[in-house]
Amino acid sequence: MAKGTGKKPIFKRVWFWVLVVLVIGAVGGGSQADKGGTKPASAPAATSETASDANARAAASEAATEAAEEQVPTEYKSALKKAESYSSLMHMSKQGIYDQLVSEHGEQFSAEAAEYAMDNLEADWNANALAKAKTYQDTMSMSPEAIRDQLTSEYGEQFTQDEADYAIEHLDD
């Protein structure tokens, strides 16, 4: 075999990860010493190493994040994508999305997958309630009290009372 061919990438070598762990340990240990208010005598040398330490930490953090994402079951990832879609496109409430994810007439995800989706969903529930309220006002010409009832109804949108109150307060904004 010719030189240079067949080599493993650096991040697949054991010594690289040992070095990353040592660097992270040194940085973590060094930060504890720095809290005491004393600086080591070789501050310029430590500064020059900081950039490489930061790169090593970033690489290790990225690898850990990718590993964590790979461990999430596909069903959970799918439930989260569906929940994001319901929130951003249909402006559904938290309870409404959960119910749709687990419904036998809906998405039929497991309760665990739906819980994962709801725990990891980044949504502004007040904004969703307001968007839904404006839809009711514009398309159905409903009164504010009728909209509030629809937003909080267990047979309707299932927003919380606070979310519905926010929506009604900002309906004319």
**Domain module tally:** 2
Number of strands: 0
The CATH superfamily of the largest domain is known as Winged helix-like DNA-binding domain superfamily/Winged helix DNA-binding domain
List low-confidence stretches: 31-35
* Architecture (CATH level 2) name of the largest domain: Orthogonal Bundle
Largest sheet: none
What is the name of the CATH class of the largest domain?
Answer: Mainly Alpha
Please give the radius of gyration in angstroms. 26 Å
Walk me through this protein's architecture.
The chain is mainly alpha-helical. The protein has 2 domains: 10-71; 74-169, Arc Repressor Mutant, subunit A (Orthogonal Bundle). Helix content is 69%, strand content 0%. It has 8 helices and no strands. It has helices at residues 14-34, 43-71, 74-90, 94-102, 111-120, 125-140, 144-152, 161-169. The N and C termini lie far apart (72 Å). 20% of the residues are buried. Mean pLDDT is 81; it is low at 31-35.
Would you spell out the secondary-structure blueprint of this structure?
Blueprint: H1 14-34, H2 43-71, H3 74-90, H4 94-102, H5 111-120, H6 125-140, H7 144-152, H8 161-169
Q: Quick gist of this model?
A:
Helix content is 69%, strand content 0%.
Which features would summarize this protein structure in a list?
173 residues, mainly alpha, 2 domains, 0% strand, elongated
